[in-house]
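As a warm-up, study this chain.
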Amino acid sequence: MKEQPLHSIKKNSFQQIRLTNDEYNGHRFLDIRIYIKGEGDKYYPTRQGLAVPQERVEAFVAMCNEYAADRKNTRWKRK
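Now compare it with the structure written out below.
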């Protein structure tokens, strides 16, 4: 049961990254998926993404926060 996106950010001129609560076989998860712009400027989900089980969302957020802190506190550069 797909719900409305919780958050979305623009990836580029024709793609978005969306966070959505979802459920599959009775298991709830956070769906992080790339959507692509199609006809009529409507966005459609792609196969690119990941599903984080609800019980692991806090650990996933902590991992992202650690990455952000490391990136901010070091001289992170693209290669």
